[in-house]
Amino acid sequence: MDGIWCLLFLLPLLTWASAQNVHRRMEYKYSFKGPYLAQKDNQVPFWTYTGNAIASEESVRITPSLRSQKGQIWTKNPTNFEWWEVEFVFRVTGRGRIGADGLAFWFTNAAGVEGPVFGSNDQWNGLGVFFDSFDNDNKRNNPYIMGMVNDGTQVYDHEHDGLTQQTGGCLRDFRNKPFPVRAKIEYYKNILTLFIHSGMTNNDKDYEICMRAENIQLPSAGHFGVTAATGGLADDHDVLKFIVHSLRSPEDMAQLSVNQEEEEKFKKEFDQYQDKTKKAREDYLAQNPDAARQEQKEEYETGEERELRQIFQGQSLIAENIRSLHQKMDEIVGRQERTLGLINNIGSGAVAPGGGVPPVGGVPPVGGNVVGSDNIRRHEVDALLNNQRDIVSTARDIKNFVNEIHQKSNQLLTKSSAPQGSAQPVGYDLHVTLKEMQEGLNIVKRDLGSANQHLQRIPAGGGAQGCPQANCVSTSMFIGFIVLQVVLLIGYSMYRDSKEAQAKKFY
Ligand SMILES: [Ca+2]
Ligand SMILES: [Ca+2]
């Protein structure tokens, strides 16, 4: 469990660290976004769309929610950069509890043609990332997100949702989310990473890693594309934003900077393109005063919209606080481990007499005359060590419980936001989950109490042996957050139930 935790925290850090020296350039000729995504002639600049796809000012509807539809949009030109990152914002919405078939992101050596794999052709050469809504193999593992690299020979195994063919993937429900769902796909130095933002909040930081694979060989130049398909069941598949950044290492940049002129030309071209888009927008508003009024009207919201927005803001705040709690827990664990290391050093006599221990982080230095004097005896050091170990393990337990509660609250939210089948009693599930949460809370409370006792048992004034005070979270604050969250959750799910009951009257 701890390993997974470390991995979860380390991976984004590693990616972040590796991204520090990477030069990113927005590639507007491979991107689109609103407003005025489609121009007056309904074309999307630098892209071609076909099939049932429709482009509007704000989004590209790859398929409407009608049966047996297929739509595609592909870049006109192949890429002229080797490594890239794509931010891809979309919505999959439908009235059914289950949707179909799904949406696909592509990077292939040639633009695809209409076919059986989420609207595009099979046996592609390159990468496909599938947002698969429909559970063809009935393993109850959809909606599923997966990446699949193909060298042009493999035939996609539709009947088993490509289960054995995937390069990696994760189980995420991306349908009917309050905010658009986002995917970030990064291909840099043959490492493919996929991050998903669940669309439960509007916070840019809420990306989670979905898959990571090394030694991936993709075509050095290719076309980006998005396709979708519906079957007997249907969803709207809308892409709101597709932003490509090219990634270059410092070495690549050194080579490129020889060609400064080209860089300047690109910047000028991009500025001109932005001016053109802005002017087109202004012209349109001048010619269509109705649209301008409509735009102003959208600034106002109804009471219901406001309530919903406030609930989500509250939830985002709670999620933010839990995230910072996680960070503090990690910090505490880190500090305790460093302290343990220091004490071990003292125990094994690694510190030279009179040398002192170098101060690490917020831990005050241990007096230089510790070793050699009779201030600390062996059994005291052992007792201290045991205490510290207990604290570390209790802190880990608390972290796990916080995580569990966070997951449960997410499940609750997902359950209350997913349309319910008539055979499933909602109240029972909710009751059981609340009961579990209550038990979880009691255990957290008990553990916090025992952690407190441990801290008090440690002899005061012992220098390095005390807990770093500034970073300990107070029990009442912690319990306060949890209680606030539970109240908000109950309120929200009651609100949702009543909305659903109202909505059902119309069907
Ligand atoms: Ca499927
Ligand atoms: Ca499946």
From TrEMBL:
Entries under InterPro entries matching the protein: ConA-like_dom_sf (IPR013320), Intracellular_Lectin-GPT (IPR051136), Lectin_leg (IPR005052)
Spans through the membrane: 477-495
GO CC annotations on file: COPII-coated ER to Golgi transport vesicle; endoplasmic reticulum membrane; endoplasmic reticulum-Golgi intermediate compartment membrane; Golgi membrane
Ranges where the L-type lectin-like domain occurs: 24-247
GO MF entries: D-mannose binding
Example GO biological process: endoplasmic reticulum to Golgi vesicle-mediated transport
Membrane topology value: Single-pass type I membrane protein
Predominant subcellular localization, coarse grouping: endoplasmic reticulum
Signal peptide range: 1-19
Tree of life domain: Eukaryota
Subcellular location per the Swiss-Prot or TrEMBL entry: Endoplasmic reticulum-Golgi intermediate compartment membrane
Protein name: L-type lectin-like domain-containing protein
Keyword terms, alphabetized: Disulfide bond, Lectin, Membrane, Signal, Transmembrane, Transmembrane helix
Source organism of this protein record: Meganyctiphanes norvegica
PANTHER family for the chain: LECTIN, MANNOSE BINDING 1 LIKE (PTHR12223:SF28), VESICULAR MANNOSE-BINDING LECTIN (PTHR12223)
